[in-house]
Amino acid sequence: MNVPGPLILLRHGQSTTNAEGRFTGWADVPLTAHGEKQAATAAQLLARDGLVPDAVHTSVLRRSIRTADILLDELDRSWIPVHRTWRLNERQYGALTGRVKREVRREVGPGQYRAWRRSLTAAPGPLPGGELARLRADPRYAALHGDGLPAVESLADMIARVAPYWADVLAGQLCSGRRVLVVAHGNALRALIAVLDRLTGQEIEELNIPTGAPLRYDFDRGLRPVVRGGAYLDPDSARTAAAAVAAEGQA
Fold first, then answer.
1. Label partner for 169 (CA 20 to 30 A): which of 6, 139, 161, 222?
2. Residue 226, Cβ neighbours under 10 Å: how many?
């Protein structure tokens, strides 16, 4: 068996709803100018550390796709195979989609707000019927018949949809020695990290993923992380940005 290749996890660059402090979920929003710069900076970090990817995976949402496109263009690797899947979409935030985080926190209190954002099992109310119907009519989700497209998700639901993609797709590419880049969303990456590191519920609550900050995982031959939690390529910036994610909605 080959020594597994490295896995690089990257949350997309700042989106317009990130900048506005809103829950985004499956809403398809663009990057800000700052988010585009974050994608270019991430590419520079990958080049610096010899991590030009062999394969790339994104969600089917434009903020993830655009981040990957900018990064690959910066690396002169736009020809690399890219696989897009709904399994790497952001968490379906249901009735919270589009709402301002600080307003939700003020309305329901800090305990419920934290549970909805960070706990393993808590979930808000479902997406309204009209909005759910529009998503179900979107050709990106044609394979998700009937109840296959979620009206709302907890992080446990996220883990249930991300884990098969790890086992069936990503793990095999890594075992072949390839350098694999996943450009996804905060909660999709939290779910994947929960699988990789076998996180406890408390550890999941404390995990915050900043935008535009590449996180490297290396593996032993049993595909277990060499360093639990991986290593950010720019740890100081990532630490500051993760603290800002944790504080969202409190101002």
1. 139
2. 12
Write the single-letter amino acid at 216.
Answer: R
Structure tokens at 190: 């939290």
pLDDT tens-digit readout, 13-52? 999 999 999 999 999 999 999 999 999 999 999 999 999 9
CATH, residue 128: 3.40.50.1240
- Number of domain units in the chain: 1
| Vertex 187 angle, CA 131 and 54, to 5° | 110
The per-residue pLDDT for 1 is 61
Which residue's entry shows tokens 């408390």? 202
Beta strand pairing status for 7-11 and 215-217? antiparallel
The band of 2, judged by pLDDT with boundaries at 50, 70 and 90, is confident
Please report whether residue 236 resides in a domain: yes
Going across the sheet that includes 7-11, the strands are 82-84, 55-58, 180-184, 7-11, 215-217, 231-232
Q: What is the pLDDT of residues 205-248, one digit of tens each?
A: 999 999 999 999 999 999 999 999 999 999 999 999 999 999 99
Residue 251 has pLDDT above 90, yes or no: no
Q: E strands within the chain?
A: 7-11, 55-58, 82-84, 180-184, 215-217, 231-232
Tokens 């593996």 correspond to: 219
Domain that holds residue 228: 7-246
Number of Cβ atoms within 10 Å of the Cβ of 203: 15
Residues assigned a catalytic role: 12, 90
Counted residue by residue, the chain has a size of 251
